[in-house]
Amino acid sequence: MVQWFWHTLGEFSNEERVLFMRFVSGRSRLPANTADISQRFQIMKVDRPYDSLPTSQTCFFQLRLPPYSSQLVMAERLRYAINNCRSIDMDNYMLSRNVDNAEGSDTDY
User: Is 85 a catalytic residue?
Assistant: First the structure.
């Protein structure tokens, strides 16, 4: 299963890799400094039906994969998930947070 995953990721386009990063971490790219990476990437096998979609836990940088019957099925399900599950977007959250902090920095307390 892990070999299938890395083979699939190797076949992804750059755009799909960005979507994958957002799916598993909530961000479209890794930090520039490796010391800023607080979690190691984990692939977890989950006991779910083989036709289920993969899931992720962005806080823990985890990808949860059901026991797919083939690498092709895994690739199809993973592509579907990364293209259709975009509910967490830490990039825009961090941008708006930085703007809010910058706007409030001129205020005297």
Answer: no
Q: Is the dihedral of CA 65, 66, 71, 76 positive or negative?
A: negative
User: What strands lie across the sheet with 55-57, from one edge to the other?
Assistant: 42-45, 62-65, 55-57
Q: For 2-36, how does the pLDDT look when each residue is reduced to its tens digit (9 = 90+)? A: 999 999 999 999 999 999 999 998 887 776 676 66
The pLDDT, as a whole number, for residue 109 is: 41
Catalytic residue among 59, 94, 95, 99: 59
Coil/strand/helix, residue 8: helix
Q: At what angle do helices 14-25 and 71-84 cross, to 10 degrees?
A: 70
CATH topology of domain 1-26+40-88: Hect, E3 ligase catalytic fold (3.30.2410)
Angle between the N-to-C axes of helices 2-11 and 71-84, in degrees from 0 to 180, rounded to the nearest 10:
60
Q: According to the model, what pLDDT value does residue 102 have?
A: 54
Q: Does the pTM exceed 0.85? A: no
